[in-house]
Amino acid sequence: MKKILYSFILLSFIAFSCDEFVEPDPKDRITPQIALADLDGAEAFLFSAYNRLHAFNYYGQQFHLTGEALSSNIVIGNNTGRYTGAVVNAVGSHFNLWADPGGGNFHSLYQIINDVNIVIENAEANREEDSDRADVMIAEGRFIRALAHHDLLRAYSYEPGQEVGGFNLGVILRTEAVDAASKADFRPRATNTEVYAAIESDLLAAIADLPSDGNQAAFPDRASASAARALLARVYLYMGRYADAATQADAALNASSVDIVAAADYIASFAATVHPEAIFQINIQAVDWSTVDGVNNSMTTVTKTTSGGAPGSSQGAVRASDELLAAFETGDIRRDLFRNPESADFWESDKWPGELGDFREHIPVIRVSEVLLIAAEAKARSGNDAGALTDVNRLRTNRGLSASTASGSALIDLIMQERRVELCYEGSHYWFDLKRLGLIIPKPASSGVDPLATDDFRRLSRIPPAEIEQHADAGVDLVQNDGY
Amino acid sequence: MKKILLLSFMLLLTLSFNALAQERTVSGKVTDSDGSGLPGVNVILKGTNKGDITDIDGNYKLSVPSEGGTLQFSFIGLKSVEVEIGARSVIDVTMEEDVETLSEVVVTGYGVATKRDLTGSIAQIKGDVIENLPMQSFDKALQGRAAGVLVQANSGAPGATINILVRGQGSLSNNTPLYIVDGVQVNTGSSAGQASNNALGGVNPADIESIEILKDAASAAIYGAQAANGVVLITTKRGRSGATNLDITYQKGFVQPLELYDVMNAQQYAEIRAEAYANNPSTERATAIGLFGDPENPASLTNFDWVDAIFRESANQDILNVRLSGGDDKTTYFMSASLEGTQGQVIKSNFSRQTFRLNLARQANEKLKVDATIGVVRVNQFGSIANGNFVNGPFQSAFVSQPNSPAFNEDGTYAPYPNNTTGHNFSYNIVQGVNEERRENFIAQAIGSLGLTYKILPYLTANVLGGLDFVDSQSINERPATIPVFAGFGGQTFVDNRRNLSWNTNATLTFSKTFGEDHSVSVIAGIEATERINEQNTATGRGFASPSLRLLGAAATPQAINGTLTSFTRAGYFGRANYSFRNLADVSATIRRDGSSRFGEQVRFGTFYSVGANWSIIDMGFMSGVSVLDDLKLRASYGVLGNAQGIGNFQAVPAVTGARQYLGNGGQAFQIANDQLTWERSQQLNIGISVGLLKNRIFLSADYFNNQTEDQLLAVPLPGDSGFGSITGNVGEVLNEGLELELSVVTLDKGGFKWVTSGNISFQNNEILSLNEGQEQINPGASTRRIVGQPINVLWGVDYVGVNPANGKAMWRDNAGNIQYGNFAPEDGRVVGSPIPDSFGGLTNTFSYKGITLDIFFQFQLGAEAFNGDLANLAASGGRNDNQLVSQLDRWQQPGDVTNVPRAYEGEIIDGFHQALRNDFGTFRNTRYISDASYVRLKQVNLTYSFPKSITDKLNMRSLSIFAQATNLLTWTKFDGIDPEVITSLNTSFNSGNARTGFGVFPVGKQYNAGISIGF
Fold this sequence. Notes:
The structure holds two protein chains of two kinds. Chain A is mainly alpha-helical. Chain A has helices at residues 2-15, 32-35, 39-52, 62-70, 109-125, 131-156, 192-209, 225-239, 242-255, 263-269, 293-297, 299-303, 322-326, 368-381, 385-397, 408-422, 429-436, 465-473; strands spanning 29-30, 74-76, 278-282, 306-307, 310-311, 318-320, 338-339, 348-349, 363-367. The longest helix of chain A has 26 residues, at 131-156. Chain A is globular and about 80 Å long. Chain B has a 22-stranded antiparallel β-barrel. In chain B, strands 10-15-16-13-14 form a five-stranded mixed beta sheet. In chain B, strands 40, 41, 42, 43 and 49 form a five-stranded mixed beta sheet that branches. Chain B is globular, with a radius of gyration of 31 Å. In chain B, helix 5 runs antiparallel to helix 6 (285-292). At the A-B interface, helix 1, strand 1, helix 2, helix 3 and helix 5 of A face helix 1, helix 10, strand 24, strand 25 and strand 26 of B. Strand 1 (29-30) of chain A pairs antiparallel with strand 30 of chain B, so a sheet runs across the interface.
């Protein structure tokens, strides 16, 4: 009998060693030490960052169209609740890039920034493995970081020199990896010039180490030196550094292997799986989307009423405004991208046809035509009308239009007009152009909404109110944009 | 750990064959009033520690002194017997049922007790109450029947999950109680993907003998680490030795929807759309007429009733239960089989289940008893899409589909939807979708246990138990290319295979002894280990040559694969001691030390405990003169319990997971972690009193509880610019206190007519005492914020003032009293309500006369508010492509109109302001869509007639009864949705404590059943 009692007592003692039994045994994750032990591990975060660029609140959809709706390029097609706030500039209906909107293919730009910050720190830490490879990875990371910081800045802040009431705050600058809660400090916004300085420094470093188009095996799906130059040209344009913008744009055009397509090839170029003018694009594979992402959130479903031959399955939430259609000169081949299969006044764009099937296509972020127009604008604004005319006419003659002979402010107006029609439905350029130049933002006559004055608070997006409150709770003053 | 427990099994088996010799004995047989042997009776030589427990035949054998002595026979539920031994060597005893205490045997953790000995608070529901209820899982039956237990359906779909809260919500992360079926810690939640499937449906409710809910520290602390949310113990029926009983019950019924939304017909819809288009300068009335028809010309309009096409007028239900039980001297058995087929209220929704159970007990020898249970279930479910605002969810689409666009062409084929160019609802014809999409679950589940009890000494018993709950499910969603939205990729098949295994094993040693006349002591010590493994593999294929070919193998394109495996383990040691002094007082103490794999290495183990006492004042000498009182007892307990449920399995492990890809290269994501993550600790105080009056015709019981749960497992927000949303920490404290009252009154008992009224009501107060490091709020800026001083779930909103009579625009009032059209900062809101009810309970009246019994059962919850998301679609003044509630015809039309419905305006945004603050849904709940979710529901009416023995004897039956019952017959509520009971959001994880909102949910239905029970 005692045997049993003893056994039980024994059992209890043995049982105290059951620490082992309650050791967690995860099969779906590895420790950071293993995951980031080499350059392959660091690069995996780069792939994550590239992937997140096609978030639906970013280049996957909303970043292309929000500005079009906030200005006067698109109006509501079918009322699905999408962009209904933005077309009437309802308070709070704006770019949504700051905090994680949550779930699926929606990401905060800061998640992208943190991914590349992890790449940059860990590529440096594993440099001895292959120094050249580490340099390229760091350069790609800095390119992406610059892109994200600049897009945040464009949405949430005034450009230097265009501040309303001297409000010069930029966005929060993140250049160190957050890999533990202790590093997730609450910090205030940097000034717009501080953020621009960081962007410039990232891009200059990226240009030095990134491969040329020809040496980038994954061109244009991954960053190249010409992509970084093009982006830097865009950044200088926003900073008002026109001479620098012209230099970088010309350098990008010279370095890049891609060229403007001829007018005859223009319409087909948007149905090509890789846009022939893309200097940098985001590659999307079928696995990147859930089975309903295409029909719910793709560019195709939002901008078209038909897709893949199945009538009605595409939402067609937005259509072109009368003002946008009127902006095309007679004979402009780009006007032929618009069709009205549904009804006489329902003009939809074929720029995003979903040519890979199920609403999917790769997404150009920088096309060579934009670089050409940056060069033209930068030259025109720095007094080089001849250079500007050469550039803008190179585009016009490949778009079914005659060469222009305009000069002075008429030339600048012509270039801005070209930007509007060339880059519509892509990257919200029209909105950002009006904003960076401090111009009144027109609204479609049919909207019944007054144009946005140069000091209208809705020119800037609202920083998520939750972030303001959380920072306040932590004792850090995160300043909300005026008016919100 | 596994090995150790296996070892202890073997140890007990081998030891059990060491028979023990006795010198001189008295023996005999203990029988019940029918003459059947009674196993398990305690036989004690009075005044000594010598004793025996009767075997399966009721036989006992005991060594006694050569002269004198008295034997005491005792068994729970039977009247104790004392017999002088005298010179006899054989003493046979008949024991009678103790009518007063029979119903008071309660199952406690790792044992049983009589209700009078309890120091803690345990609610009990007997199996006969729920036996014939037409419900798929037993948890539903707890609604309104146990004080302090709040039960809310998550969905009206047959077989769907249920939300159960024992004594409110003490945790900010998870409030799901621990469920134990015959000693097996079972899976909860949904076990399949294509329709909500309640894992607790693995037990046929008709097989249940009793359900005990351990509510306070004294009763639940034995389950330590996971007891803070309460423990629900389910005991299935066992056989009894004696004649073989065969019972057959069959019932048939039908289900009807509650009152559904009253939506517009084609003419009303055309009218309000034309007006909305005309009012918006960017749209024209003529366009609306082109799209939706001309309201002035009703003859030109076709009208289609989508609601009628989606909801069944009456859904059928059939339930058959067959039970066979009995046994001989050594072996008892209980076998049951059941078949159920239940249709949901919407077309295609149905549930069918077959169950089988075998509970077997064998007294292997004098010392060793083996008790085995196995329940096997197969479920086939054809579901609608989960609750939520989905275009292919019938509870959204049936109401919003445009009435001018019929579902069918004239030849009966499905018409393209919509018949205009609005592209409404992703052009998804919901009638076609529900009919042609396949959303099917197949579930096989087995819950089984094997227990060995070895009597080492009369007062010392060892017990080893092993149990498992195994669920294998397959969910299939087929989207054929015949549905236009899926034509583009040639149709799609999605297969989701899951395997959930939950096992636990424990070994206990129980000492139980009475010292002298007055002192009895029982002590239990044990060890336990448990593991739960959840595995899921899914695959999606697209592109089928024909809509009839639907297997994954026939897919042209492998679209996506996914696979996950996650697990946790927990292990601990526990002990409990009870001491009773006469009938006057009991004292108990419990301790358990538990470790969980979910926590940080340094803080993985926690110690939990409780102490409790009761005092039977009525048995004190000074009470002998008080004749009006029959019972008066006080109870008190205090303890600290744990909760580990609110977090994922690996949240304490800093790690990197695979995530995303680019150009075929796998990406990685950082999982930020907190390696100091540990238990939520809940300090629970309970004070109770029971009073019996007028020969116990009136019985009142009251319990006050005060639970303070600290170290809440809570997502602490990180700055969004860090790239992370939050990190789980142990922060904050929640107070959850309440009062539970139970009353039962024999209102009338005369001439064979008996009227018994019993009811319970619970009042609760829930309040966040603190949050992270002195923060006043968590989730600020969001509608799901947590605020110190407020209940854990609040609705944050701005008040709807009404429509400005001058211009028809919706007006709102911020918390400073300013009236505005919109543009509110989050801090302009206030707490406008809480979905946590102030009180809830149930009331049963039972009338019986001869063989007729009528039960009328009401269930209620009071003082709760709910946000009805459906109204965001349906109450938009005609400003959307969605069909609208008829009430929207009261919209503002001209200056001077006084109404609550704003002006019809296409897009709903007038001068930049959304008329329902829809753009701010993440920040505010709009009080226009909030209403009082209090309700009183006539939950159950049951009329039973049991035929008298004179008739059953002639029919050669043991018993015969017929019954009719109605469920959810009537509801009194001010709630503006379909069903105030089913208020759940698609984003609300099970019991997560987020504010519940209704949006496209499956309401419960009215159910009418009639049946017959025959016993042979």
